[in-house]
Design goal:
By secondary structure, this protein is of the alpha/beta class. The chain has 19 helices and 14 strands. It has a 6-stranded parallel sheet, sandwiched between helices. Strand 12, helix 17 and strand 13 form a beta-alpha-beta unit. Helix 1 crosses helix 3 and helix 5 packs across helix 6. The N and C termini lie far apart (63 Å). It binds uridine-5'-diphosphate-xylopyranose (2 copies). The site of one uridine-5'-diphosphate-xylopyranose has 20 residues, from helix 10.
Length: 471
């Protein structure tokens, strides 16, 4: 099938490459000519696992880049809209890019097309797209508007696309449903998974994925409700972490106990300095606004957002309690991306924490395996950028772990200890076992667990004859 994907961002580029992997001819359209030129040269503007492999396979063969939406629409049966949907000042969604794309598509179509929302949009956006297209001269029988939400996590977006938990097709006519099914046929009938050069899936992948056909409104709601629910899970566990700290419990043990109930599940139960990224913060606000518009006061979502913001403040408080005063302190920071595995710093709790610490008068040396260039655009010369984790720690009063990169979980602890001015680690992602940290001589603070220090550890062992970790 010939498919156009409008928008070559995190979502559009991955979707385009994956559609090509499923055998389709893809035109990725963008209105940013610099970006297009770079893509055309074979550059990949984002850090995303397996995307380089897919582009090497398909670029100039099944994937083409273009700035001409009209031509792309005429050549395609399905047009996926994946342009940005940024938040407005009021927390609603700015749908002006989606609208302008819909207008352009309307004036281009001369035969039946399916226009598919891929960007996360509020419920009823599909109705608006339809209205805008009709107002701009598209004939009613020449198009359908569908919603096919993506559930891609940055960093694992390619495997999330090819090995999804489910494929949601929100469409209101049988013709539209069957065209969308054709797009995902290789996944639904499992042929992709038998291919010799298929991108390897995660260990727990269950294939083939179920296809869930819904109305467009339901599909739009599925996306917002899923993201809001996942964010709620994180805020819930972060609240439990605060209680764990207060009562001397260990939140990791609590999570293990909770997560092994299959009704709850262990995923998205990791305590942290809060969720960030281009989706959760924006989608929570947008879903809240949608609920308000339809006269439902969804205050639970306010609480999810409040707990998330509070979590960053609590982390700052933790740094303060580790160092007493902050002014003039030198801090090593590991992680700037909003999570591990990506170079994206949009709404990154790590960057927000760094900015708050700078305001308190700290000096910061930071390292991130992928997000340094993007962070430099925002933080400029306000911090030092270290070439690796150890250099970031050098002569620091404390080391802060702000992003859950795998490589931060396997640092050489004796080396780290010798580089820090004071062996203090404040871990916002619980990457280490407190017992191991204290045995390596660190004073170690984490989320939802007791802080530990070598002096009190030694005293505890002497007094009780047992390994006691808290201070
Ligand atoms: C996506 C989704 O669109 C958003 O709804 C979801 O919540 C997060 O992910 P993302 O792919 O991250 O957004 O957006 P971004 O990286 O900003 O890319 C959007 C692309 O669309 C850009 O390359 C931009 O140049 C392009 N664009 C934007 C157009 O081609 N036309 C426009 O009118 C506007
Ligand atoms: C999310 C959704 O997971 C995805 O389905 C949707 O399509 C886009 O939004 P993404 O923003 O890429 O994906 O990242 P995700 O892995 O969901 O993490 C979001 C944030 O939550 C990150 O800041 C991460 O560090 C944080 N997080 C995640 C936690 O703090 N604890 C967890 O247990 C999981």
């Amino acid at each position: 099938m010939r498919i156009s994907v409008v928008g070559s961002g995190y979502v559009g580029l991955v979707a385009g490459a994956c559609f090509a992997e499923l055998g389709h001819e893809v035109i990725v359209v963008d209105n940013d000519s610099r970006k297009l030129k770079a893509l055309e040269r074979g550059e990949i503007p984002i850090h995303e696992r397996f995307l380089p492999e897919l582009m090497a396979r398909h670029h100039r063969r099944r994937v083409k880049f273009s700035g001409d939406l009209t031509d792309a629409v005429r050549a395609s049966s399905a047009i996926f809209i994946a342009v940005g949907t940024p938040p407005t000042e009021q927390g609603e969604v700015d749908l002006s890019y989606v609208e302008s794309v819909a207008r352009e598509i309307a004036s281009a179509i001369t035969s039946y097309k399916v226009v598919v929302e891929k960007s996360t949009v509020p419920v009823y956006t599909s109705n608006w797209i339809r209205t805008v297209m009709l107002r701009n001269g598209a004939s009613r029988d020449l198009f359908d508007v569908a919603s096919n939400p993506e559930f891609l996590r940055e960093g694992t977006a390619v495997t999330d696309f090819l090995y999804p938990d489910r494929i949601v097709l929100g469409a209101d006519s049988p013709r539209c449903v069957s065209l969308l099914r054709e797009v995902y046929q290789q996944l639904e009938n499992g042929t992709y998974y038998r291919e010799q050069f298929a991108i390897p899936g995660p260990d727990n992948a269950s294939t083939p994925p179920p296809v869930i056909v819904t109305t467009t409104q339901s599909a739009e709601l599925i996306k917002h409700a899923s993201n809001a629910f996942l964010a709620m899970k994180i805020s819930f566990v972060n609240a439990v972490a605060s209680i764990s700290e207060a009562v001397g419990a260990d939140v990791q043990q609590v999570c293990q106990g909770m997560g092994s109930d299959s009704r709850i599940g262990s995923r998205f139960l990791n305590p942290s300095i809060g969720y960030g990224g281009s989706c959760f913060p924006k989608d929570l606000m947008a879903f809240r606004a949608v609920a308000r518009e339809c006269a439902y006061d969804f205050r639970l979502l306010d609480e999810v957002i409040r707990i998330n913001e509070d979590q960053r403040k609590r982390f700052l408080q933790k740094v303060r309690s580790a160092l007493w005063t902050l002014k003039g302190k030198r801090l090593g920071v590991l992680g700037l991306a909003f999570k591990g595995g990506t170079d994206d710093i949009r709404e990154s709790p790590a960057v927000l924490t760094v900015q708050a610490l700078l305001k308190e008068g700290c000096t910061i040396s930071a390292y991130d395996p992928a997000a340094m260039n993007r962070a430099r655009e925002v933080l400029g010369s306000s911090i030092e950028f270290a070439p690796d984790a150890y250099q970031a720690a050098k002569q620091a009063d404390a080391l802060l772990i702000l992003t859950e990169w795998q490589e931060f979980a396997t640092l050489a602890l004796p080396r780290l200890h010798s580089l820090l001015k004071y062996p203090i680690v404040v871990d916002g992602r619980n990457l280490y076992d407190p017992l191991i940290m204290v045995e390596h001589g660190f004073t170690y603070y984490s989320i939802g667990r007791q802080a530990v220090a070598p002096e009190s550890y030694a005293a505890g062992v002497a007094a009780r004859g047992s390994r006691q970790t808290s201070i």
